[in-house]
Design a protein that fits this description.
Elements (H helix, E strand, L loop, with lengths): L2 H5 L19 E7 L3 E8 L15 E8 L1 E6 L2 E6 L3 E4 L5 E6 L5 E8 L1 H5 L1
Antiparallel strand pairs: 1-2, 2-8, 3-6, 3-8, 4-5, 4-7
């Protein structure tokens, strides 16, 4: 392979790169976005949604917990997530982050999509 060919190769990125040493707030980084899909990395540590706040999103959200642990609250109760767990949260399903790992960053991969993307 010539040097010119190597220059044209796509460059990998790593979800563990550029993790901040301190996180006063959750960190949301959009990785890919189109009209019907948004993929983001979320980094949190010892975070919870503000008291009384509920997410009520217009898109479906599929989350994969890559590292750490988290507890989500739905109106019906709690769901515990640990590394490797994934969860589909349907559009307008009210939920909140109850807690995330205290001792290490919790890293999420979140895919937000609408019905048009689901039917493509």
């Amino acid at each position: 392979m010539s040097p010119d060919d190597r220059r044209n190769l796509p460059r990998p990125s790593n979800l563990f790169d550029n993790l901040p040493a301190r996180l006063p707030d959750e960190l949301f980084t959009t990785l890919i976005q189109s009209p019907h899909v948004r993929i983001e990395r979320i980094v949190s540590q010892a975070h919870a949604s503000p008291e009384g706040f509920w997410y009520d999103q217009p898109q479906h959200e599929w989350v994969l917990l890559i590292r750490g642990a988290a507890t989500l609250r739905f109106e019906e109760g709690l769901v515990e997530l640990r590394s490797g767990d994934s969860l589909l949260i349907k559009a307008h399903r009210k939920h909140r982050v109850e807690s995330t790992s205290q001792d290490q960053p919790t890293i999420w991969l979140a895919v937000h999509y609408d019905e048009a993307a689901a039917n493509d």
